[in-house]
Design goal:
By secondary structure, this protein is α/β, with parallel strands linked by helices. 50% of the residues lie in helices and 23% in strands.
């Protein structure tokens, strides 16, 4: 697909381009749209530079900015139109932020497909100007092919998820489907803006489904270690799991996270610093299996023993817990 798009770009770059020099400035310098390339069927931008290549690059950058702004504006309007009224009669935009984030599109210069250099002009000072246009229908057709492929991939992923019995397996499969949906949504937004059609959302329903599924995953966290540190480590694990959407705190949770935290002094002769080495281990399991066994050790230094121990605890509850979550998701992704 990428090779096809590149071939189209190269072909269009050299077709239909007219070059003028000196004399009166062409009207397209100030008015990028005309009867031949009207706004209904094209997006158009003009760029300038010392060379033809620089002028074309500037025009493509301008085209990218115009396209990105158009997608953003249309998404914003759609977001506001999805408002609801609460029982008191007040208008509420409950998912405005989520929907706006879904619709944001950063159109980079190299993502402007089916664009064509149609005019180049060199003025009396030797500066080069170029007009680049994007055929709405051609670009939409190329993007639509990518959207269709992503839809097929999502459908296959959903079929696999239906056959999965564990909630953790379903969760990670839904995360993978959501990743495909975000890519699909970005391309779909561009297609619909090019064709002037209302935006449809594929990401928000999946995000809501993921939230509902995650809330059903209960994890009970226990930590073995020094009393003054165990509560902090437990709180860090619980917060990390809550950020994934999981429920924590109930002893009858479907899953258990059993962690251990230990810290010891490390003596280094002739060093002005005090050192503390922590060891953090954790297992996530249910009645049938262990999903992840994790161990992490690290050494921290400070001017006092108390501060060295405090730094070790901070490192364990931030870096250590964060690494556990990363490996946990990676392990599930590799398995499912």
């Amino acid at each position: 697909m990428r090779r096809l798009i590149l071939a189209v770009l190269i072909l269009l770059l050299f077709l239909g381009c007219t070059t003028t020099g000196g004399g009166k400035s062409p009207s397209w310098l100030d008015h990028p749209y005309d009867r031949q390339f009207d706004q209904q069927h094209y997006l158009s931008a003009v760029g300038s530079g010392s060379t033809r290549e620089q002028a074309v690059d500037a025009a493509r950058a301008g085209l990218a900015q115009i396209f990105s702004s158009t997608v953003h504006s249309m998404t914003e309007v759609t977001t506001l139109s999805t408002s609801t009224r609460d029982p008191g009669g007040e208008q509420a935009f409950t998912h405005a932020t989520e929907m706006l984030e879904i619709g944001r599109v950063t159109a980079q210069v190299d993502s402007i497909i089916a664009s064509e250099v149609v005019n180049v002009h060199v003025d009396s000072l030797g500066r080069t100007h170029a007009r680049v246009v994007m055929d709405r229908k051609k670009s939409a057709a190329l993007l639509s092919a990518q959207v269709d492929e992503l839809k097929r991939m999502r459908a296959a992923q959903r079929s696999r998820r239906v056959g999965e019995s564990t909630s953790l397996g379903q969760y990670v499969m839904l995360l993978q489907e959501l990743s495909l949906a975000r890519e699909e949504q970005a391309l779909s937004d561009q297609v619909q803006v090019l064709l002037g059609k209302p935006l449809s959302q594929v990401v928000l329903p999946l995000e809501q489904e993921l939230g509902r599924l995650a809330a059903q995953i209960g994890v009970f966290v226990t930590v073995d270690g020094p009393e003054e540190s165990a509560s902090s480590v437990q709180a860090a694990f619980e917060q990390a799991l809550q950020q994934l959407g999981f429920s924590v705190g109930r002893s009858d949770g479907q899953y258990r996270l059993e962690a251990e935290y230990q810290v010891e002094d490390v003596v280094m002769e002739q060093s002005p610093y005090h050192y503390a080495r922590y060891a953090l281990s954790a297992r996530l399991l249910d009645e049938k299996r262990v999903y992840l066994s994790f161990e992490e050790t690290s050494r921290e230094a400070a001017m006092s023993r108390t501060e060295a121990h405090a730094r070790a605890l901070r490192a364990a509850t931030t870096d250590g817990v964060g690494m556990f979550v990363t490996r946990f998701l990676q392990r599930l992704a590799d398995e499912y």
